[in-house]
Amino acid sequence: MKRYFSDLFVGGKSLVDGLVVTLKALCQPMVTVQYPREEIDITPNFRGHIDLVLDPEKNTFRCIACGMCERSCPSECIQIKGKKVEGKKKKTLSLFTLDFTKCSLCGTCVEICPTQALEFSNEYNLAAFSREAFHYDILKRLEERII
Amino acid sequence: MRESQFQEPNRFFLNMGPQHPSTHGVLLVVLEMDGEYVLDPQPVLGFIHRMHEKMGESRPCQGFMPNTARMDYVCALPYNHGYVSLIERKAGIEVPKRAEYIRVITSELNRVASHLLWLGAYLLDLGAFTPILYGFDDREHILDILEDVTGSRLTYCYYRFGGVYRDIDDKFVEATRAFIKRLRKRYDIYEKLVTKNIIFIKRAENIGIISPDMAIRYGITGPNLRGSGIAYDIRKNEPYSVYPEFDFEVPVGERGDCLDRYMVRVREMEQSLRIVEQALDTLPDGPVRSKVPKKIKLAPGDCNFAVEAARGELSYYLVGDGTSVPYRLKIRVPSYSNLSCLPELGEGILLPDLVSIMGSLDLVIPEIDR
Ligand code: SF4
Ligand code: SF4
User: How far is the CA of A136 from the centre of ligand 1 (A)?
Assistant: First the structure.
């Protein structure tokens, strides 16, 4: 009988203790943000999908269309084409697409590139209604940034 | 499905899953019931099988790195760790000391994050909504810290053969120290909110008792095994990386019930923090990546590497044939064995207790199916 009441007391107290914890939390500043109205800053080291680096000196891409990234990508999501341009010895990049639905963000392409022509973007707000929306034309994205 | 042989009116089959909140993923458990009592719970696997092992056998070994994080997405870094160490052992690649330290630090942080998630999810299974919010608040700090060095939040691909992808900086060290301090202060909250809570104790104490003998029979590892009183931890018993240099304990339970498994995980968090602290104090300088040939040749013969993941023993087995593509890759994941004891454990118990047991086993389904 005595045991019953002491259990009741200890158990009841444990519940009150728990409520005190939540009550304290109620008076503390909020830790969440009202996404999508508010957004938190993301670290520059975040690895989003890849993008071509815009060379500030040449005002264009650094890529030499060697195809290393295309070959080393484990998910086979990069497609590259180079074409001959008159007056230049080497090929020039004419197509660079990324199938982001398959990309695993491993970073192999960025690391293997001999000219450091690739970087990770910082985009994370990605949502769309179709698969095709994630077939990025990386070259076009770069051309839009060229001023 | 089997034909019903039941004569009595209150015997029936119940499908728990594959879309059930407390199976934490696409796991189906077919329950043979007698009223509220479970007679025979049979797990059905394979809903999320993605043939990871086959993928590992069909591409050069570098290409399998991102896959390792997609098995146990809750605690991905030890999976990275096991695979890079396997290839390093196989190909005889040296790893700089600093890189090993960084691997240990990040892996242990990931383990704490995994245990925090488990704590919240387990309590959620038992019907308590609040603890997961506290757990996620703390876990968020770890994710931010790891995101800053690894570039991702969950499915990390951070380790590389012969090192790590990026060196850690002062900001990382500072943030980690601040987090350790913070989590130590928060223990009190978890104790008041969960550990001492009478409802939680009643739902976990003496429920789902795994005896040491049974644990060994099923090959249970990790906190589930240690909850049964067997102090087996790969980090101590088969030390890898730089773990022998750190001083930490292996917490064990006594009875092997849900409460013991809970306590083991909570105490393990503190041990992980201790390891991180020591590693930060003695962090050596130097490079974080050694020179590795572009094409890694895997010599004929087999090789094995085991690490302690958050759920138990994770072991990679590889057979090479002289090319850079593994001839055979077999992955022994902890949750698969941990789940296998369910039919024996869940015989003749109440349905709510089965939920408590499954929660306490800390199952990650994509890891079981691979
Ligand atoms: S990050 Fe990895 S998967 Fe994505 S495009 Fe680059 S190499 Fe391919
Ligand atoms: S590896 Fe670099 S230079 Fe070569 S094709 Fe890819 S982006 Fe261009």
Answer: 13
Which residues share a beta bridge with A79? A97
| Chain A contact present for B66, CB below 8 A | yes
* Domain membership flag for residue B178: yes
H/E element holding A82?
Answer: strand A78-84
- Ligand 1 atom nearest to CA at A104: 3
Chain A residues lying within 8 Å of B165, measured CB to CB: 107, 111
A91-99/A135-137 β-pairing: antiparallel
Residue B38 lies in a domain: no
Angle at B322 between CA B321 and CA B324, to 5 degrees: 100
ipTM: 0.81
CATH number of the domain within which B359 lies:
1.10.645.10
pLDDT band at B1 (very low <50, low <70, confident <90, very high): very low
pLDDT of B7: 61
Mean pLDDT (chain B) is 87
Query: Which of residues 18 through 77 in chain A touch B, CB cutoff 8 A?
Result: 18, 20-22, 25, 31, 43, 45-47, 72, 74-75
Q: Is residue B34 part of a domain?
A: no
**Inter-residue contact A59 to A141 (CB < 8 Å):** no
Q: Is the pLDDT of residue A126 over 50?
A: yes
> Using CA atoms, how far apart are residues A69 and A71, in angstroms rounded to an integer?
5
The token pair at B28 is 């189906």
**What pTM was estimated for this model as a whole?**
0.87
How far the first Cα of chain B sits from its last, in Å, is: 24
Is residue B134 in a domain?
A: yes
Residues whose CB falls within 8 Å of the CB of residue B64, separated by 6 or more in sequence, listed in order: A74, B55, B56, B83, B326, B329
User: Could you give the angle at the alpha carbon of B253 between the alpha carbons of B251 and B256, nearest 5°?
Assistant: 140
